């Protein structure tokens, strides 16, 4: 960057030339600008030469200054100086231009000075910033390009080393001046060597506009559209307008704003509406229209600039402008209003782009690309997708990709509803390109790069590996089927096969995705795009399982995310999908209980053969598991074919007297005379696609299986045997614990050891071996006592299935975390007080065991009130024999207490008891209270979630409990490996549904999801915010109609005045003709019968 210095000596310059009369030097004004007296962010500024390449300036704006890449650039020209700006022009700038810039992500270019239109734009930007939301994605960027020699107080900006910041003071901000405006983000101060002269920046500004128009937008889909907006303007603006139009730059002219804008709008409207009249001169028939056009143009130029001396030059410029009239849009802001200004901008740019596009492309493609780049789906709906245009797949393909990459779900929905077939669009090659477009700053990008390495072509298999890392073993790998990797277990071999498969022109990338909506759904979830992911969830099948899968992915990603804001967003989106799964399943459960049960345990081919229950437990979906439908299924699995109201005492009685299972005391869902199928029969029928195909068995065998195969039976048997084991173990430890061999162990100890060989073999067997030797007998007995304590505490886990005890166990578990924090604080005070107390009481005591007792154990007992005052206070008598002899102390005799500083010992004791007994204990109570109040409302949810794991545990266990479990193992071995009988119990948690049954189930689930979405839409439309929006739209329509009515009234009044004039003129003609002798009338003139009612004075 450089600035200019004037290189004049004593010569007189009649015509200024920046190149000839100035020289370039390194710039001495750059950095940040701080407006004194204003608590606003600093603005960037730079003084640069008028011949600076625009590429350098654009790179400075975007790369160095960090301005966001624009989707539109509006360059406001004209309206300079201190001329008063009309009120309606201010409203167009405020309500139209700035609002459209915010919605499209645009830059606004002006002079950036506190005068004329530049000041109005700055105030509009200020008002927008005050009213706009802080989370608005598109911020209005106002950029000032002003001549350096015109800026007031520019010497405050000069600093060869740069100003960070430069203090800029404006004396009077209430009046127009050439000072820099405070509301602009950046300033480019163009120096052409002149001082106090306007227009020095025009050449550089035109070059910058042309350069920006050839750059790509932030999305990279189209070139940045640039539009010049002409407000008023002096005669020199015609040259700028002419040169810009010759470079195919579109312009918008505000008719009625004055100056050149009125001239151009008048010429375009009058000459375009009326054809030229041929000249009557002979031999000039061909040149007649051109001459007539030039005369009419000269007449209008003379009318606007009556005192201009170079009239021919202005006429030639206006004629040149007229030749490019297709690039100019005339906007009547005073009549049309600023509400639809963004639509006018879009049409102006589209009209200009039609002059540059090829004839083969659709005339509406450019307009659609602009609407997508600006994210204006409302314009697309009203102007492009209003049933007047027949869109082809080829016209929507590129815009669909742009909408996906740039996270515009409303456009994706619009395209899929208007002719884009997702099956043709979504191929595996397209999916790879979407994953390649993931932003570098996202967590998904880092995970892909970690797996991808240098192999840029193997995207499908790497995405599968990333999903495998996130999902774990809950489902089979994704995208292995099209790569023919289903049976490959080695990852290295899979990579080699995939790289070999993808070499050359393979058909894999042209193959359609098997589940296109699910693939897009996973892609959106991995990038944490909430709105896009929710839309894809609405479109994909298996909505309950899809929502749970998204919940699993997002919660795993939140654990890997390091940024707190992104982590919170992932957790919130995961909870949203869990709520969706809960609500949709609630609809399904209300519709059909049996189908909803099948939905929970059906294996999904879309999600790698997993089920809703497996995905829910992997996703930690507590809310989903707390649903009554899920709990009802778990209860049916828990009770098997027995009725759920069967009393526990009946089951226990049947344990000891199995004959009772054939009596009326024991009831099952399926009896001999009942026609209603049992739970197992229903699942078997759903799996096979038929009804009641389960093989029939005799009543004795059937009732036997119904009792012993139920998980509740296995649970009660294990609990019963576990209580017997604990009683026998306690008896051995307390009464019948014999010495090591050959005198022991006792027979009861062998019986106690037998059932634990199958459960806790390692711990119990090790302790039992230790007690067999004389040298380790006591240690082994102590370890067995600890084992008994551990086995007894295991009852807490067993009784977690109980409906009343389970939630309380959850609360106790949460409180244990609070105890660890309490013990940390307590340990700090114990060590601080114990060491100080020991050192003050005993000057020398080398016994480690007594040091440990007095440093930790005795202060801990102080908390519970056991304070040995006679030992701590030397004023009390102590009946213990002690000595001060170091030799006797080292031999083990008790040392005497130190009398020095004993007062400090008492003070420390008081402080210690005050902190521990009052402060820390009450802190622990407060923590317990907070935890209880926090968990109490959700304890039932936690318990229902953990109940699933306990049911699965006992569902997979054999029927008989230890030590009779060996019989069950033998029976299962014969049944599975010798007789080859398949298991029916596996259908309780995993069910394969194929064919018509699967299609019916998916259709039914889709219907329930649509019903849920309709209900949600009704609730949303009935909310207060939506009502206010609809009311606001109605008020806007009423105001628009009132404005149109006022406009019609104005036009009718104008027409009435014209009619009055015509009537007067006709009366004068009639009167004149009547007094003339040229023609005699055959009848008298007609008399008026009355006035027209539509033009009455009431108007």
TrEMBL record:
User: Please, which domain of life does this record's source organism belong to?
Assistant: Eukaryota
Please indicate if the UniProt record lists Membrane as a keyword.
Answer: yes
- The segment(s) forming the TRPM SLOG domain are 44-273
Query: Where does the record say this protein resides?
Result: Membrane
Q: Where are the transmembrane segments?
A: 707-734, 820-844, 903-925
Q: Which UniProt keywords apply?
A: Ion channel, Ion transport, Membrane, Transmembrane, Transmembrane helix, Transport
GO CC, alphabetical: plasma membrane
Kindly list the GO molecular function terms attached to this UniProt entry: calcium-activated cation channel activity; ligand-gated calcium channel activity
Residue ranges constituting the TRPM-like domain according to the UniProt record? 383-627
* Domain (Ion transport): residue spans on this chain: 742-938
Membrane topology recorded in Swiss-Prot or TrEMBL? Multi-pass membrane protein
The record's section on Pfam families has: Ion_trans, LSDAT_euk, TRPM2
* Residue ranges, annotated region (Disordered): 1077-1099
For this protein, the record's PANTHER family field holds:
TRANSIENT RECEPTOR POTENTIAL CATION CHANNEL SUBFAMILY M MEMBER 4 ISOFORM X1-RELATED (PTHR13800:SF47), TRANSIENT RECEPTOR POTENTIAL CATION CHANNEL, SUBFAMILY M, MEMBER 6 (PTHR13800)
Full protein name: Transient receptor potential cation channel, subfamily M, member 4a
Record the organism: Esox lucius (Northern pike)
Q: What is the primary gene name for this protein?
A: HRC
């Amino acid at each position: 960057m450089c600035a200019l210095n004037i290189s004049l000596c004593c010569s007189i310059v009649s015509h200024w030339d920046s190149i000839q009369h100035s020289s370039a030097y390194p710039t001495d004004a750059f950095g940040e600008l701080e407006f004194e007296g204003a608590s606003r962010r600093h603005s960037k500024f730079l003084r640069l030469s008028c011949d600076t390449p625009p590429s350098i300036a654009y790179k400075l704006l975007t790369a160095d200054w960090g301005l966001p890449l624009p989707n539109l650039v509006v360059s406001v020209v004209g309206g300079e100086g201190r001329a008063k700006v009309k009120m309606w022009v201010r409203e167009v700038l405020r309500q139209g231009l700035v609002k459209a810039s915010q919605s499209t992500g645009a830059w606004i270019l002006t002079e950036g000075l506190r005068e004329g239109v530049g000041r109005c734009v700055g105030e509009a930007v200020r008002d927008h910033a005050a009213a706009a939301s802080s989370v608005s994605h598109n911020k209005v960027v106002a950029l000032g390009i002003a001549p350096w020699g015109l800026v007031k107080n520019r010497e405050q900006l000069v600093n060869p080393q740069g100003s960070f910041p430069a203090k800029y003071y404006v004396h009077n901000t209430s009046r127009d001046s050439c000072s820099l405006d405070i509301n602009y983000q950046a300033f480019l101060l163009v120096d052409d060597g002149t001082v106090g002269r306007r227009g020095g920046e025009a050449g550089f500004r035109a070059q910058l506009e042309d350069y920006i128009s050839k750059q790509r937008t932030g999305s990279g889909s189209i070139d940045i559209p640039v539009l010049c907006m002409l407000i008023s303007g002096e005669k020199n603006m015609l040259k700028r307008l002419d040169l810009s139009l010759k470079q195919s730059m579109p312009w918008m002219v505000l008719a009625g704003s004055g100056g050149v804008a009125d001239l151009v709008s008048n010429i375009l409207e009058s000459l375009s509406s009326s054809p030229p009249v041929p000249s009557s001169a002979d031999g000039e028939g061909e040149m007649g229209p051109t001459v007539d056009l030039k005369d009419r143009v000269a007449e209008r130029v003379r009318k606007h600039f009556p005192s201009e001396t170079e009239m021919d030059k202005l006429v030639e410029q206006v004629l040149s402008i007229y030749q490019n009239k297709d690039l100019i849009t005339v906007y009547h802001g005073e009549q049309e209003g600023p509400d639809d200004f963004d639509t006018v901008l879009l049409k102006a740019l589209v009209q200009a782009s039609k002059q540059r596009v090829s004839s083969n492309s659709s005339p509406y493609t450019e307009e659609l690309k602009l609407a997508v780049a600006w994210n204006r789906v409302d314009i697309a709906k009203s102007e492009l997708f209003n049933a007047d245009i027949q869109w082809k797949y080829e016209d929507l393909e590129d815009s669909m990709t742009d909408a996906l990459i740039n996270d515009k779900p409303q456009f994706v929905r619009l395209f899929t509803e208007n002719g884009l077939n997702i099956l043709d669009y979504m191929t595996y090659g397209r999916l790879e390109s979407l994953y390649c477009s993931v932003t570098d700053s996202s967590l998904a990008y880092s995970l892909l790069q970690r797996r991808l390495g240098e192999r840029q072509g193997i995207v499908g298999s790497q995405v599968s590996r990333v999903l495998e890392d996130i999902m774990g073993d809950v489902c089979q790998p994704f995208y292995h089927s099209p790569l023919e990797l289903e049976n490959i277990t080695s990852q290295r071999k899979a990579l080699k096969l995939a790289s070999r498969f993808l070499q050359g022109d393979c058909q894999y990338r042209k193959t359609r995705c098997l589940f296109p909506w699910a693939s897009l759904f996973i892609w959106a979830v991995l990038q944490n795009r909430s709105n896009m992911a929710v839309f894809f969830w609405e479109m994909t099948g298996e909505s309950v399982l899809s929502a749970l899968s998204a919940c699993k992915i997002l919660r795993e990603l939140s654990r890997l995310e390091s940024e707190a804001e992104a982590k919170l967003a992932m957790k919130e989106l995961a909870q949203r999908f869990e709520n969706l799964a809960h609500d949709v399943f609630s609809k399904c459960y209300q519709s059909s209980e049996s189908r909803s049960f099948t939905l929970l345990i059906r294996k999904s081919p879309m999600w790698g053969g997993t089920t809703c229950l497996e995905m829910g437990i992997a996703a930690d979906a507590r809310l989903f598991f707390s649903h009554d439908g899920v709990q009802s299924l778990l209860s049916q699995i828990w009770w098997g074919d027995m009725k759920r109201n069967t009393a526990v005492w009946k089951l226990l009685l049947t344990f000891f007297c199995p004959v009772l299972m054939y009596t009326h005391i024991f009831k099952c869902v399926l009896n001999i005379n009942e026609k209603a199928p049992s739970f197992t029969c229903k699942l078997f029928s759903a799996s096979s696609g038929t009804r009641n195909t389960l093989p029939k068995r005799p009543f004795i065998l059937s009732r036997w299986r119904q009792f012993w195969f139920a998980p509740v039976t296995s649970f009660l048997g294990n609990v019963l045997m576990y209580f017997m084991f604990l009683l026998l173990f306690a008896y051995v430890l307390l009464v019948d614990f014999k010495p090591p061999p050959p005198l022991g162990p006792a027979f009861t100890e062998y019986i106690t050891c037998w059932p634990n060989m199958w459960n806790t073999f390692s711990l119990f067997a090790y302790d039992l071996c230790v007690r067999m030797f004389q040298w380790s007998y006591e240690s082994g007995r102590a370890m067995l006592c600890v084992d008994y304590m551990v086995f007894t505490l295991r009852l807490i886990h067993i009784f977690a299935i109980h409906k009343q005890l389970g939630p309380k166990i959850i609360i106790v578990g949460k409180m244990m975390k609070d105890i660890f924090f309490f013990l940390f604080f307590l340990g700090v005070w114990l060590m601080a007080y114990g060491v100080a107390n020991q050192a003050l009481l005993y000057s020398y005591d080398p016994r480690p065991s007594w040091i440990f007792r007095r440093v930790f154990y005795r202060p801990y007992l102080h908390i519970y009130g056991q304070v040995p005052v006679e030992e701590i206070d030397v004023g009390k008598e102590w009946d213990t024999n002690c000595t001060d002899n170091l030799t006797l102390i080292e031999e083990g005799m008790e040392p005497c207490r130190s009398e020095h500083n004993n007062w400090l010992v008492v003070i420390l004791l008081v402080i210690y008891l005050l902190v521990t007994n009052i402060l820390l204990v009450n802190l622990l109570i407060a923590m317990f209270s907070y935890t209880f109040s926090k968990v109490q409302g959700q304890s039932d949810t936690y318990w229902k979630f953990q109940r699933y794991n306990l049911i699965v545990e006992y569902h997979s266990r054999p029927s008989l409990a230890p030590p009779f479990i060996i019989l069950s193992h033998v029976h299962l071995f014969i049944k599975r490996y010798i007789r080859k009988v398949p298991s029916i119990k596996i259908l309780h948690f995993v069910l394969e549904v194929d064919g018509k049954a699967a299609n019916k189930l998916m259709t039914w689930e889709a219907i329930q999801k649509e019903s849920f979405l309709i209900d949600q839409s009704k609730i949303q439309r009935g909310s207060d915010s939506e009502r206010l929006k609809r009311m606001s739209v109605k008020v806007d329509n009423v105001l628009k109609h009132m404005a149109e009515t006022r406009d019609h009234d104005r036009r009718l009044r104008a027409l009435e005045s014209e009619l009055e004039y015509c009537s007067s003129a006709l009366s004068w003609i009639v009167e004149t003709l009547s007094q003339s002798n040229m023609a005699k009338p055959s009848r008298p003139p007609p008399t008026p019968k009355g006035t027209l009612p539509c033009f009455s004075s009431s108007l």
